[in-house]
Design brief:
The protein has 467 residues and is of the alpha/beta class. The chain folds into three domains: 229 residues, FAD/NAD(P)-binding domain (3-Layer(bba) Sandwich), CATH 3.50.50.60; 98 residues; 90 residues, no CATH class. 41% of the residues lie in helices and 24% in strands. It starts with 6 loop residues before the first strand and ends with a helix.
């Protein structure tokens, strides 16, 4: 039973916090949504964060939950596969799926966040407060200390429940870490690579300078460039580069001449679309990439971590936002079962969800190595062609690891990882051993892959039980 007078204090009005606020208000709670930054609808606060994101089925499930599916579709640009660009400026499309209706979308982070805030603002039981940065949280009493930037003062805000959706630098998580009355585990692991965002501008007529229906990748072994389309005809281009190792790295790209030299050598066809590269490279910030894991996610039946605050991941599976939106969907389902007992809700939510967020964090790291190097290898390309053929000919019998993660929103990430990794290993082993004969009927090849997959899953299960 909902206590209509209960206040849910949500720290962070980014994507996860805004969706959560909207859903909790729809359920009848009083919601205070607090954000340290200015209102993004009236101020530019990108600060080097990704301008656009890959939006797929798990994220759409969150939009359906709050009734925004049709509105969000208007912000989406479908991307049907990876457009791989080689060193000789040749390119080819590697489809995400053999099924015609499976694709991911490029979506504006700011546009999506603004849509959620607009909808939240329509709710009479949501109070939006900007320019209030959380300093710390009294976990036992549900009281947050915030710095009111506009009035240069500290204020205390109290909630019956406090949920931290305040991202990788979460103040609530820090309060849990510093709390002395219970054990809190926390890990933060950074990649050796950072990233910098650049741009392909629109053509003079407003059209796209390259194929808009794909996520473009320039895989170069240790480093890479990717590009996603925007609604205005531009592309957001991201360089992933080692901080301080290799012939070219962020530490030694210190002059416009050296930056242009690097792009001319490794990304010539991308460089041809970047008239402002030398300026943007030095004006735009360079940011770090890391994975955060922690536990527990809750304390005293009063506070809970959600989204990146609980499980920040690297962006290489395009699932960070989608995973955070799925957090809200799972939380909503558990609320249906135990509404009124916050302690039980929090414990069950973490028990169900943590194994899956750990899995997608590991998969995202896997995909980092796949995207920057393996996508260009002949063996990987042969595997992808075979998987796409399976999905096209036997759409109800086979899904690749990518499809399991991205398009099968009812399969938990942990199960998608378990089965997907076994399938990858099976196909790569069979290809490397010359056991796949492409002259045989595709049905026979699928049966062979399935047998090998089940054998690997069986061996993995035995190994796990022996540990």
């Amino acid at each position: 039973m909902i206590n209509q007078n209960q206040t849910i204090l949500i720290i962070g009005a980014g994507l996860c916090g805004s969706l959560l606020a909207l859903r909790m208000a729809q359920r009848g709670y009083q919601v205070q949504l607090i954000e340290k930054r200015p209102d993004l609808r009236t101020a530019d606060i990108s600060a080097g964060r990704s301008i656009n994101l890959a939006f797929s089925d798990r994220g759409m499930k969150g939009m359906k939950l709050v009734g925004l599916e049709e509105k969000v579709k208007k912000l989406c640009i479908p991307m049907y596969g990876r457009m791989i660009h080689d060193m000789e400026s040749n390119s080819f499309l590697s489809r995400y799926s053999g099924r015609e209706d499976e694709y991911i979308n490029s979506i504006s982070r700011g546009g999506l966040n603004a849509l959620l805030l607009d909808e939240a603002e329509k709710m009479e039981n949501i109070t939006l407060i900007f320019n209030h940065g959380c300093k710390k949280v009294d976990l036992e009493n549900g009281i947050g200390t915030f710095y009111d930037e506009e009035n240069d003062r500290e204020v205390l805000l109290k909630g019956d429940i406090v949920i931290g959706a305040d991202g990788a630098g979460s103040a609530l998580r820090k309060s849990m870490f510093l709390h002395k009355k219970f054990l809190f585990s926390f890990s933060q692991n950074f990649l050796t690579h950072g990233y910098k965002e650049l741009t392909f501008p629109p053509a003079e007529n407003g059209d796209y300078l390259t194929e808009k229906g794909a996520l473009h990748i320039w895989p170069r072994g240790e480093n890479m460039v990717i590009a996603l389309p925007n609604l205005d005809g531009s592309f957001t281009v991201t360089l992933f580069l080692n901080w301080n190792e290799g012939e070219y790295n962020f530490e030694n790209l210190t002059t416009p001449e050296r930056v242009l030299e690097y792009f001319e050598k490794y990304y010539p066809d991308a460089l041809a679309l970047m008239p402002n590269l030398a300026t943007e490279f030095f004006e735009n910030p360079t940011a770090a990439l890391g994975t955060i894991k922690c536990n527990p996610w809750s304390s005293y039946g009063k506070t809970l971590l959600m989204g990146d605050a609980a499980h920040a991941i690297v962006p290489f599976y395009g699932q960070g936002m989608n995973a955070s939106f799925e957090d809200v969907v799972v939380f909503n389902r558990i609320l249906d079962k135990h509404e009124g007992d916050w302690h039980k809700i929090f414990i069950e939510y973490e028990k169900e969800r943590k194994k899956d967020t750990d899995a997608i964090a590991d998969l995202a790291l896997d995909n980092f190595y796949e995207m920057k190097a393996h996508t260009a290898s002949p063996l990987f390309q042969e595997k992808r062609k075979l998987e796409t053929a399976f999905e096209k000919e036997f759409p109800f019998e086979y899904s690749s690891k990518y499809s399991l993660v991205t398009f099968n929103e009812d399969i938990p990430y942990s199960e998608a990882m378990r089965r997907g990794r076994a399938q990858d290993k099976a196909i790569l082993n069979l290809l490397a051993d010359g056991k796949i004969n492409l002259d045989k009927p595709l049905r026979d090849t699928l049966a062979l892959v399935k047998r090998e997959t089940e054998s690997i899953l069986h061996d993995d299960a035995i190994a796990k039980n022996l540990m």
